[in-house]
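[stage:ingest] chain + small molecule (adenosine-5'-diphosphate)
[stage:ingest] validated
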Amino acid sequence: MKILVLNAGSSSHKSSLFDLTSRTDGAGSAPTPIWRGQLDWSHQAGQVELSAHTAAGESIQEVITTDSRQEGLECLLKTLHQGSTQVIGSLSEIDAVGHRVVHGGQNYSDSVRLTEAVKTTIHDLIPLAPSHNPANLEGIEVLEQLLGDVPQIAAFDTAFHASLPAAAATYPGPYEWWEKGIRRYGFHGISHKYVARRAAELLNRDLAELKLITCHLGNGCSLAAIKEGQSIDTTMGFTPLDGLMMGSRSGSVDPGILIHLMRSEDYSADQLDHLLNKESGLLGVSGVSNDLRGVVDAIASQNPRAQLALDLFIHRLRREIGAMLASLGGVDALVFTAGMGENSPLVWEKACAAFQFLGLRLDPAKLERSPDDQDIAAADSAVRVLVIHTQEEWAIAQDCAALCQPQSGQ
Ligand code: ADP
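[stage:predict] done
[stage:export] tokens:
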């Protein structure tokens, strides 16, 4: 069974093709996709950078002059069956397509087969995810045109958090907010769910008996408190702006600051949006970079704002881990994932230092990046600490296989 996964963002489209038929590796680990492709619209208006590579090592990179996202996507998919990166004879060999969809609102607690009704819901949720849901819909429609009746599914970033109890999901504004859908949805759910399952596998324990805190620390950062396999609390909220400090997003700030800026400096909604999403976080405080590596380099050259940015990032991370700990009433394992979570021993050490009082101890011999998922806690640690490489596209492919299996033989 060949499954195409599409992860459409506001300025990039990432895509992978998995061949489940030819899997020879273990069931636990994620297989390498036979093809990966990417479109990046962020460089110059009217141009898109296309890149694709195969598991066998072939790759191409080119710049296409077009404004049309549909044309870009068609060019990308051509690299699946033409030229040096060809891995299939024609697009008709694709058995199913999985789409990452950022916002599923209150309607979906799991991945679903795409129907007209599901597409209408994704469309209706555009006001809650203005830069993502339109790109997701566009991807779905282009694939419908290119592949006809091939089954497609939507995997929602919000779905895993549908299990949040009302006290965790409700904002303490007027009750009408809840009635209007202004509530905590939570995001990065595909990643939190995948790493929770993988943690149970690595610990050789039943997920249903575990209390986990999963830390997704990429460009966007969020935590989830996972009890018996269900998300019971999370730091992102109505939008992916809430919670932790991030690369260029502020995370939680006193809403009074926004009222102050509107009153005293005439900030518009769009200006506030830009300020909080693009000019804050590590970038805003350090003035150097939204990338932790740039901030750490600047600290090495004695940049005090870079030091403050790191201290603030760690302070907020510890504080929110503490909040998740309280929601869970204990923790069996702390899990780090995504760019910073997978690659930064500095973040592991600094975040974990605050939890020594729990008996949490890291193993100094394991504080190095590794291509493998690993347990970095000391043997006598009362809490396990896992570094797990998130595999969102593989998680979507698995949901796709589960939902589309009956049709796959037709
Ligand atoms: P996205 O959320 O876009 O999927 P990633 O999960 O790839 O992003 O995370 C990107 C971030 O990960 C970068 O901005 C950077 O801060 C961080 N990162 C990646 N590699 C390292 C590293 N070796 N050390 C520290 N941080 C890293």
